[in-house]
Amino acid sequence: MCYKNQQGVYKSVETGGRWVKKYKILCILCCVLLTSCQNTSTVVKPINEVITIPAVFLVNPETNQSIHKKIVEEFNEAYKGQYCVEAEWLTDTEAGYRNKIKQLNALDEMPAIITDVGFDSDFNELLIQKERLVDLKPYIQNSKEWLGAMQEDILKACTEDDGSIYLSSLGNPVHSYAGFVYNKELLKRAGVERFPKTWEEFWECLDKLKECGITPLALHGSGTYWVPMLIATSYISGTPEGMNFLKQKFPDDYAGDSFKQILQMLKKLFLYTYDDALDIEYAQAEQRFLNNQAAIIANGYWINIQMDEQSKEKFGFAAFPQNTLMVSPRMSAWAVTAGYDKKVTDGAVKFLEFRVLRDQKESQQFLGKQKNSIFDFEYKQSVKEVKNIIPNYQINWEQKIQNEFFTENLPFYIRNEVSEENILVMLNQLVSELKSEK
Amino acid sequence: MNERHLKKHLYGIQKKALLWLTIVISVVFLAIIAGIGTVVIRNTYRSMTAQYTYVNDKFLNSFQNVYEELNQLTSSYVLNEYVQKSLCNKTLSAKDKVLLTRTLFYINKSYMDYYLWLDNKGNTYGQKDIQLDLEKFYNSRLYKNLGKDYSKTKLFWERDVLFGSYDMALFVGRYVHQLDTIHEPGIIYIKLNNQINMKFTKELKDNSLVYLILDNQNQICYEQVPDGFQWQKEEKNNVLNRIILESNDKKLNQVEKLQYGILCQAYDKDTGFKIITYVPKSITWKVIQEILFMLGIIFFVTYLIGICGIIIFSRKLTKPIKKINQFMIEFDDSKLNDRISIKTNTELDTIGESYNKMIEKVGILLDDIKIKERKLRKSEMDLLLYQIRPHFLYNTLDTIYMLARIQKEETIMKMIQALSKFLRINLNNGRDEITVSKELEHVSAYLEIQKIRNNDLFEYYIDCKENLKECVIIKMILQPIVENCIKYGFQDLEEGGEIHICVYEDEDNLIMSVENNGSTMEEQSYRLLNQLERVPIDEIGLVMPKGQGGFGIINVVKRLRLKYNNQIRFFYIPKDQGTECVIKISKVFINLWRQGEDG
């Protein structure tokens, strides 16, 4: 058979194999090229969106610190990856802060969370009327924890006539009382072993301090006269007329005995403070007290945030004479503004709930704490033994009176440059103007 | 061109290599160009979309910056002390009115055409003394465009019914609320002039694109087209049909490829305006064409370089092959001494060297063949002579034998008889092969003659196995060996010499041995003779030094090796007394031959 034939077949097969090899190489080359030309597709994993909640908080211009910084940090940590409160830290006075919020409202640029809303009833009313705040009632009712943390009277105080709740106060007033905070060492140096319990003792105490060369009171004139006004209002609360005057919302007449007593009290108080008291802001007065430059200041428990542990042993807390403390649920009220995306609103509401629950936890710890500093111990005792609670005048009086009239006119009165009658006339004139605006 | 012509045309390694490499490179280049071209077009589109998305983003940013500036502007109205005062219930004093008007006047910008402050009591303040029909105003689109937002700065594209020009213009409007207490809001309006348009595209450098701004009703309120640009039929509608109506995404930026070009659009949530950058197809194709053109040039140049490289490489590679080829074509007898010189540091060098060796061997072989031919011719002549002479020679020898017999000369008779036998076997009718018995008979005749000549110097003994006698071997193997025995082995003997010839076999060979008891062969001699079976057959004549004889032996060994394809052994064994010569022939040849003979 042909070897030749076999050879021929073999030869042709070999030739075919050579072609197959060539085509193989070409095919591989094309495949490589086409493969290299292909694009690699990347799968983008969805990223969980962190909801940013804008807020504006006040920073003490003296200490450059904010009492709200800690809660913001804790909230952001607790809701990491879900919510983030992005705060604008505003270094200003309380009045400055409240004015800023008003401006932001007028510009429709309010942050989602605002504080100090309860202090200005008119503005509060404006916000509610113009639907600028979120009704928190459904949220509170849907959260058993939140509802459970709220004392009934506080919830009631924050509920509007139509049943809506726009203001979120702390659930209990444990940390919200205001009275006298005093420097034990300075009082001791003046020979005062026990904080005065009556107004007579109080004046005696101030005299003794003054005789020892110690500035008895830390007061301020610039701003809202909050500290001296706190003492003066507590003074008039001792009488039924005075108490009624304090309970009035937007009094029509300031020329009555009660406000006269307040004015007289103010004049007297400013005899026991430093010379430049009329020119300084609240934050400066507070700082001077904490720096041992004055013996007594009227203030709330919240001043303890400015104290270190050592100072808490040095400072004491006492009720105003006649066993009186000032507290008003709306003082601690914060609110959520309308107009934001639902996710942001939900986050802002969550923050308010977090605040209430956090305060509840801290209040329980505070009340159950066995080993207390002197300041905490005396605060607790004062709260425990308090007989008279007075409302915060700031909530019931016109903001224009507090923020503008007092600042503009009281210095003249205190310096005896304007008579009491004139002040009262001017004040009532302003009141009637404000009424007409409404 | 038929196949034969094509084959002729494509003859040669270089042409084939050139053809195939060109085909392969062309295919590869085409594939690369197709692949890269596709990728380039796709990536160019992607890059362009990214680039124009960025441009549109800048456009959007510019728009938003303008909006922010307008927002700041209206904010200054909102927070203005006298504006705030004018919102209170108390009517403004004349002094406050003057101050308000002055304040508003000072808030002036180049892009502001007119402004109007409408307080909550219906009072208007502005450059123009405008008496508004409030009922009509509250039903106008200018008012309705303010929407339900509390105090957002609103931007809208409307007919100017406010300031009486009735042209379409951009307006800014904003509700102004009292800061502290509840009052109805006032409204600030600003009519913007064309200078605001410059701000929109101030940051944009590319004038070859179409920029559009559409209001929330999708009305075009700003349009910038490149010089000489004309919308294609349906092109503009095609673009406007693709506009997003609304989005919750604050900075939605979308891009899509349309029939006529690339459309980038962004939706500004604050105003509801749409910011559009449109890239006409002429621009996109121009970019792609430029890239493809550059790519084409690069590939073409690379292709040419590749082809040139292939030509140069194949030429270099095939040059020595061609040289060898030419050398071979031109080779003839006259060029046996020519040598090819190739130095390429490749396998071709070895081919060249091998070729040179081959030529050298061919030369030797040709010489050899010439000598052999000459010998063959001589042999043929001799054979012819032998064929003429034998009868005369045999008749003459028979006559001498008869005369010797008559005269009773026994020795002569014996000698004539041996010589006659020797010559008969020697001639063997011209055949080269004889049987073992004939070979033994031949050597025996030779020994008889020598014995008479040397006066009974020796005796000889022949021993052969019966079965081997008929084996055929080449003739005259033993005679030269025996001659050497007498010539050199017995040169020192006077008498008593013995020669023993044995023919026997082992498993593989036919063995013949010739042993004498004479002088032992010198070591140098037998060492040289023992090389004969190993050395190349061409060099066999060079083994024995000149003048030392041994040519008979060399002739025997050479014939044996040629006949039996080197499958023989030939060696000398020195003994205490004498020397033994052994010849071994592979039975394979003996048997095959016998079979052939039998067949």
Automatic annotation (TrEMBL), chain A:
InterPro entries, alphabetized: Bact_solute-bd_prot1, SBP
Domain of life: Bacteria
Coiled-coil stretches: none
PANTHER family in the record: ARABINOSE-BINDING PROTEIN-RELATED (PTHR43649), DIACETYLCHITOBIOSE BINDING PROTEIN DASA (PTHR43649:SF12)
Protein name: Carbohydrate ABC transporter substrate-binding protein
Protein source organism: Anaerosacchariphilus polymeriproducens
Lineage, top ranks: Bacteria, Bacillati, Bacillota, Clostridia, Lachnospirales
UniProtKB/TrEMBL annotation, chain B:
Keywords assigned by UniProt, alphabetized: ATP-binding, Cell membrane, Kinase, Membrane, Nucleotide-binding, Phosphoprotein, Transferase, Transmembrane, Transmembrane helix, Two-component regulatory system
Record's keyword annotation contains Cell cycle: no
Entry's Gene Ontology molecular function annotations: ATP binding; phosphorelay sensor kinase activity
Compartmental location: Cell membrane
Tree of life domain: Bacteria
Transmembrane segments: 20-41, 291-313
Bilayer topology annotation: Multi-pass membrane protein
UniProt-listed Gene3D superfamilies: 6.10.340.10, Histidine kinase-like ATPase, C-terminal domain (3.30.565.10)
Domain HAMP residue range list: 315-367
PROSITE patterns, alphabetized: HAMP (PS50885)
Coiled-coil regions listed in the entry: none
Pfam families in the record: His_kinase
One GO CC term on file: plasma membrane
CDD domains listed in its UniProt record: HAMP
Stored InterPro entries: Bact_2-comp_sensor_kinase (IPR050640), HAMP_dom (IPR003660), HATPase_C_sf (IPR036890), Sig_transdc_His_kin_internal (IPR010559)
PANTHER family: SENSOR HISTIDINE KINASE YPDA, SENSOR PROTEIN KINASE HPTS
Name of the protein in its database record: HAMP domain-containing protein
Organism for this UniProt entry: Anaerosacchariphilus polymeriproducens
